[in-house]
Each structure stands twice: as C-alpha cells, then as structure tokens.
Write a structure and sequence with these properties.
single chain; alpha+beta; 5-stranded antiparallel beta sheet; 9 helices; about 35% helix; about 15% strand
Length: about 325
C-alpha cells in the first residue's frame, strides 16, 4: 500500500479507512471493548457463502480480502506509514472491498431537500460528507418531516438515515428494499445459521465491475434522485451463531428488534407501513421455503419467527 489513508467512518468497533486511489477499506479494531474484528471476518465470510448459495439474494456484500492481526509485523512494517501519525499504532485490521459512495448529484439532491439551510454551504464543501452512504429506515417515519421545522441542527451524509416517509417522498422503491432485506435475512438465518445481530443495510452505487462473482444476483435500482444504486450489507462483528430451533429463532427475533429500524415493522397504524410489512413478510416466507426442506423439522421455524415478530409489535 502506497497511498495515504483517511478516515471514512467510525463505529463502536473501530475506525474505517480508505484512500482515494484504492478500492479497499481498512477497518481497525480501535474502538470500544467487547467487539471482535475476527468475529466480523468469520461471519462476513459465512454471509458471502450463504448469499452466493442462494443466488436470488439481490443484496451486495463487500468482498472480504483478509484479516490482519496486530502482531503481523510484516504487514504493519509495510503499511503503518499509510495511516496518519495519530493512528500509527498496530491493531487488528479487517480488509474489505470499499462500498462506493454516492457522487455529487445524489449528495446535492439530499442536501437541498433535507439539510438545514444554515448548514448547506458547509456540508456541500465538506470532505467527510463526500463519503455518502444512505441507511434506508423502512421501520421509522420522521416525527417532524419538514426541513424548516427540524429541531436537529447536526447533519451528515455519512450513513445518512433516510426514513420511510422520505423514501416515499423521493419515489424510491421501498417495497423492493423490503424484499431484498427479507431475502437476505432468510439466507443468513437458514443457510449461514447466524442471527444477523446489528448488521447494517445501506444504499450505495453498484460496484464498478458488475460482471464479477461478488455481483452475482445483486439487483441495481434506478432513481432520478440517487441514480443507479444497490442495497449493500455490512458489519458482522456482533453476529452470533444461531441454532436451528426455537431458541435460535427467539435469539434472531431479539436481534431484529435491537437493530436500527432498517426493517418494516408490523402493527403500525399507517396503512403504508402495514403494506410494507406484508411485502417483507411474504418475501421472507417465500425465500425461507425455497431454502428449507419442507419435510424437515426446521420448515416451521420461519412461521414461528414471523409469529414472534408480530407478537412483539
């Protein structure tokens, strides 16, 4: 690695770095205690394998290039200088494909519609806000939908939360996003046997090379606002193994409700939200049935999962 890295993200597990000339992202385990990048690495590989097995997944997952432990002196001696001085400390690192950020046209459209007016100029010229990924929150509506009424003066395009009312306002296909998420959960539960705890879905442009194996089955959507984009799946460090029984389903339901509101929720008073949940539910059951042997004891588990989710609404 010769290019200098800059920080493009930060979470509880650690910081994420990339350069403008490389397509890789470097996730450092320099955050809070109790998180494991090695678990992120192993679960990431399981997710890739499961989603490639079930080819109609339609979600993009970054390629996983490798895991570097903190004591790998060969790697760190060659690459430590790529990080800025304040971060030139060896630690565990996960190397993945970088999810491409939205370009200027999509960023400007979001800024013009939703950024507080007094922050517009600074956000447009902000280097960190060029790292624009969008979190589709199908399970939450804004309480104060109009920009001028907003009580929140902070604004960032990094992991921008796009609520379901905004998805409707921008005429994006929320039902398709819901189906992609449902297919993805079915594959993670019944093929990878993981609970999908704290995984993240983001909207972002498709990878440049759509012919490679990592793109197999992924679905590119069109929008006059966002341009061509896909649903991407990332962040597996909190995922845990899921037993294929009632206890495992209960574990997955708890993770479903602990996560950010990516998924539609049942039992909402707005008819549009209920229709979105039904779309998600039908796709989850259909995809699960395509994976599980109908004669197996596990075939009843998807219905049990739906029942538990609906009971908790």
């Amino acid at each position: 690695m010769t290019a200098q890295l800059r920080r493009i993200g930060q979470g509880f597990c650690g910081t994420v770095w990339a350069s403008s000339s490389e397509s890789s992202a470097f996730k450092r385990e320099d955050g809070g205690p109790g998180r494991s990048l090695y678990n992120d690495y192993t679960m990431h590989l399981k997710a890739l394998e499961s989603l490639h097995t079930h080819h109609e997944h339609r979600v993009c997952v970054p390629a996983c290039h490798g895991y570097v432990p903190s004591d790998d002196r060969t790697w760190w001696d060659s690459n430590l200088s790529a990080f800025p001085k304040g971060s030139q400390i060896s630690c565990n690192v996960l190397i993945t494909e970088r999810i491409p950020p939205f370009l200027d046209g999509a960023r400007s459209a979001i800024i013009e519609r939703y950024c507080p007016e007094e922050l517009t100029a600074s956000i447009k010229s902000s280097k960190p806000d060029e790292d624009c990924l969008i979190r589709p929150y199908l399970g939450r509506r804004r309480l104060v939908p109009r920009r001028k009424q907003s009580q929140f003066r902070a604004f960032s395009l990094r992991n921008y939360p796009l609520h379901v009312d905004q998805i409707e306002e921008l005429q994006l296909d929320g039902a398709l996003y819901a189906r992609v998420m449902a297919k993805t959960l079915a594959s993670l539960y019944w093929i990878a046997h993981m609970d999908a705890n704290d995984v993240e879905f983001v909207l972002a442009p498709p990878r440049h090379n759509q012919t490679d194996t990592e793109s197999a089955g992924a679905h590119t959507m069109q929008s006059s606002i966002l341009g061509d984009h896909c649903v991407w799946l990332l962040d597996f460090d909190c995922c845990r193994a899921m037993s294929q029984d009632e206890a495992g389903v209960q574990q997955a339901v708890a993770a479903f409700y602990r996560n950010d509101p990516f998924y539609p929720r049942p039992g909402r008073t707005d008819d549009r939200d209920q229709r979105l949940w039904e779309e998600f539910k039908d796709q989850f059951l259909t995809s699960s049935a395509a994976i599980l042997d109908p004669e197996s004891p596990e075939a009843r588990l998807p219905g049990y999962w739906i029942a538990l989710v609906e009971q908790r609404s």
